[in-house]
Design brief:
By secondary structure, this protein is α+β, with helices and mostly antiparallel strands. The chain has an 8-stranded mixed beta sheet with strand order 1-2-3-4-5-6-8-7, with helices on both faces.
Length: 186
């Protein structure tokens, strides 16, 4: 234990449970991550195979919770997505990453989950000044999540790496919310 404050390992919302990943979740991850539509904006292997799911879940189970909490998003008892927050304590910021099984798109789950994580981060980490997130500029669904939460578009990166192909480049966007802005909106 390094003495840094920790975010809760379990966060419950009206419709979701965010909890630590377990090795048993690899099957659920594979069920949705093998869908090429799900992964089109994500840096994941194609085709997505069982070994990729096993490796990803093992990595998430072992993450240092003080700097990179990674929650499984449970819907109806199954891991149906994930959300993480890379915390830079020195610079007082966190960066969100998130993904949701395609069968659950369009139901507001991701907005609900991200809101809960931002709430928890600002509550548990008094020194945290900002939370940011990035997305491919064509990923309208992810951008809508950030906008619904009141995050501000801070810029566009014209040549961000795309997926696992490091030679392929597309525009990316960065959104953020400051602690003061979040508290005023709550």
């Amino acid at each position: 234990m390094n003495g840094l404050p920790l975010l809760p390992e379990r966060i419950e919302t009206a419709r979701l449970v965010l909890r630590r990943w377990t090795l048993a979740d690899a099957e659920d991850l594979l069920a949705y991550a093998a869908d090429p539509e799900w992964s089109r904006f994500l840096p994941v292997p194609e085709p997505y195979e069982r070994r990729h799911a096993d490796e990803a879940v093992a990595r998430w189970v072992l993450e240092d919770w003080s700097t990179r909490p990674v929650w499984a998003m449970e819907i109806a008892g199954r891991a149906s997505g994930g959300i993480n927050l890379r915390i830079d304590h020195q610079h007082r910021k966190g960066e969100l990453g998130y993904a949701l099984a395609r069968r659950h798109w369009g139901n507001g789950y991701m907005t609900e989950a991200v809101r809960a994580v931002i709430d928890a981060a600002f509550a548990a980490l008094p020194a945290l000044a900002r939370v940011q997130a990035g997305a491919n500029a064509r990923n309208r669904a992810s951008i809508r999540v950030m906008e619904r939460l009141g995050m501000t578009h801070e810029g566009t990166i014209p040549h961000a790496p795309r997926g696992t192909d490091l030679e392929s480049r597309e525009a990316g966007v960065i959104y953020a919310v400051l602690r003061e802005e979040w508290e005023q909106s709550r």
